[in-house]
Write a structure and sequence with these properties.
alpha+beta; two-stranded antiparallel ribbon; 12 helices; 9 strands; globular; disordered N terminus
Length: 334
C-alpha cells in the first residue's frame, strides 16, 4: 500500500517538474483592426502637438515672430496640418463670437443632408436679415445656393439651406450642436445658421480649428471655399456673379480657403488654409480690429508658420538619429 502511494507521489512530482520545464505556447497575436476613413479623420482633427517644435526649434527666434505683438486679433491658433504641430496660439480656448465662421458648419451639414440637386425657393420667412444678396421668390438649385452662401457669406441663404436640410431651422440648430459634440467641440454652441450676433452662438479658436480641419477633408467643401469667383445660375436663367469675400485666395500664395466672418461683436474673423513646399497650415483668427486688419494679420501669421516649419524640417534632417532615440525613450516612459 505504501509502495503504491510512494509511486503515485513520485509520478506526480515528475509530471510537475516536466510541465515546469516546458515553455508556454504564445497566444496568436490578433492584428489590430484598421481605422475607417472617418475614424482617421476624427483622430487627425483631435491631435494637436504643442511640444515637438520646442524640442528642435526656438519659434520666438524665427522670422516674423516680432510681428505677432502687433496683431490686433484677440484670439488665434495656427497649426501644421499633417502632425497637428501648434505653431502659435493666443486665447485659443476663450469663448468668442464666431460670426460667419458659423457657416462652415452650415455648409458641412448641407453637404451631408441637403439633397444638392433639389430646388430651393426663397420664402419670406427665411429673410431674417436684410444683409443678403438674394431676394424673396428667387429659386436656386441647392448646390448653387450653397456656393452663393459661402462665397458671398449670404446670411439668408444660410437659413434657406438650414430649413431645407432639416425641415425647419430649429431642427437644424439641433443638428449643428449634435455635430459639434461629435467633433469634440466641447466649448461650442450654435443658435443660428449664419453667425449673426446671439449670446448663445459661441465657440473658441481651438474648436473652430477642429471644424475647419474636418470640413476640409470633404472634397466638395474644399472646392467651394477655394473658389475665388463663380457665376451662379438661378433656375429662371438669370446669373449672379459671386466674388469670394476671402481675398487671400488671390492675394496670398498657396491659400486655398476657408471662410471670412464679421459682426460688430465678433470683430473681423478669418479661417485660413494655405500650402507651400509640401507644408499645409490651418489658421483660425478671431476678433481682429476690422476688415482691413484680418487679412494682413492672417498673412503675417501664415508667413511666420511657414518659416517655423521650414526650420523644423531642416533640424529634423540634421538630428534624425537623435530624434529616433528620443522617440524610443518616450515609448518606454509610456
Amino acid at each position: 500500500m505504501r509502495a503504491y502511494s510512494l509511486i503515485g507521489i513520485l509520478a506526480l512530482v515528475f509530471a510537475f517538474m516536466t510541465s515546469c520545464g516546458q515553455e508556454e505556447v504564445p497566444e496568436t497575436a490578433v492584428p489590430p483592426v484598421p481605422l475607417s476613413i472617418e475614424q482617421q479623420r476624427l483622430e487627425a482633427i483631435g491631435h494637436l502637438d504643442s511640444t515637438s517644435l520646442w524640442i528642435l526649434t526656438r519659434p520666438e527666434d524665427m522670422a516674423g515672430h516680432d510681428g505677432l505683438d502687433t496683431l490686433t486679433a484677440e484670439a488665434w491658433i495656427l497649426v501644421e496640418a499633417s502632425r497637428g504641430l501648434v505653431i502659435s496660439e493666443k486665447n485659443a480656448d476663450q469663448r468668442m463670437y464666431p460670426a460667419s465662421l458659423t457657416k462652415m458648419m452650415t455648409c458641412l451639414l448641407a453637404l451631408e443632408h441637403g439633397h444638392l440637386d433639389d430646388t430651393i425657393r426663397l420664402a419670406r420667412d427665411v429673410f431674417v436679415t436684410t444683409d443678403c444678396h438674394v431676394r424673396p421668390g428667387d429659386s436656386y438649385v441647392a448646390r448653387d445656393l450653397l456656393n452663393e452662401m459661402m462665397l458671398l457669406s449670404d446670411n439668408v441663404a444660410a437659413y434657406a439651406l438650414a430649413a431645407h436640410a432639416a425641415g425647419d431651422t430649429l431642427a437644424f440648430f439641433d443638428m449643428m450642436n449634435r455635430k459639434a459634440d461629435y467633433l469634440g467641440m466641447k466649448a461650442t454652441h450654435f443658435a443660428n445658421a449664419n453667425g449673426m450676433p446671439n449670446d448663445s452662438n459661441y465657440s473658441t479658436a481651438r474648436d473652430l480649428l477642429r471644424l475647419a480641419r474636418y470640413a476640409m477633408c470633404d472634397t466638395l467643401f474644399a472646392s467651394i471655399v477655394g473658389t475665388p469667383f463663380l457665376d451662379i445660375p438661378l433656375t429662371d436663367g438669370r446669373h449672379q456673379p459671386c466674388k469670394n469675400t476671402n481675398v487671400l485666395l488671390e492675394n496670398y500664395e498657396g491659400c486655398f480657403g476657408i471662410k471670412t466672418g464679421y459682426t460688430r461683436k465678433a470683430g473681423a474673423c478669418l479661417a485660413s488654409a494655405a500650402t507651400r513646399d509640401g507644408i499645409t497650415l490651418y489658421l483660425i483668427l478671431l476678433k481682429s480690429r476690422n476688415y482691413a486688419t484680418r487679412f494682413p494679420e492672417s498673412a503675417l501669421l501664415l508667413d511666420y508658420g511657414f518659416s517655423v516649419i521650414d526650420g523644423y524640417r531642416w533640424r529634423q534632417l540634421l538630428m534624425g538619429p537623435m530624434l529616433q532615440t528620443m522617440e524610443g525613450l518616450k515609448r518606454l516612459r509610456r
